[in-house]
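Board notes, transcribed. Complex of a protein with D-xylitol-5-phosphate.
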Amino acid sequence: MIRIQDVKLAPSILAADFARLGEQVVEAEKARADRIHVDVMDGDFVPNLSMGPAIVESLRKVTRLPLETHLMVSDPDLFLEEFAAAGSDSFLVHWEGNNNLHRTVQRIKALGKRAGVAINPATPSTVLDEIIHDVDLVLVMTVNPGFGHQSFIPTTVSKIARVKALVQRVKPGCEVEVDGGIDPATAPLVVRAGATVLVAGSAIFGEREGVTAAMIRLQAAINEEEREPAEQSAL
Ligand code: DX5
Ligand code: ZN
């Protein structure tokens, strides 16, 4: 049985009101966010631009929560040191387009940071086989990266379960995180499949009711979800 304390929420500031960013992050922290998810886009790896290390540096001053940096960029190695110096605690780097993923992961570890590998919706879970030993978390994209407010892709659910099975077999301490289209309706699906960290942008920062109420609604949806241990769930 999975309870709220087992599932962590990572609010993605991509959907925040940037004029009130610090305030909104503090509110998310008070509402029991586990970490803050920072989406970095370079207009090349994904067709959008977002934020750089200056945002991390500013956030570092207003929250004690870990700052997780999701690098949707063509050459993540170029930016690791700068983000680490700004205050990033962990990095999520994509499998796609990285010919030297193992090296990138080792560089993250050499900086003393947690390393995670992200896979896009069309990428099979099997690409993780040879890198899983080296990472602290895996991020299963449940939308195509690049934008907030997109619809959850249902076919990713079975992949989450396959990733979970791999993690349990090879690296039980590794976190299984999901990103994209997570809201009170989809959260129970990914939790049932084995996700332990849920990134949510618009469902937390985009709701009229405010950050606290949105967090409570998401936590309630997860809390209602009870499931058998993952090894018994159908893959
Ligand atoms: C998408 C980003 C996500 C995004 C999620 O490329 O990686 O983190 O902020 O936004 P929502 O929760 O609105 O789908
Ligand atoms: Zn993200």
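The longest strand covers residues 36-41. The mean pLDDT is 94.
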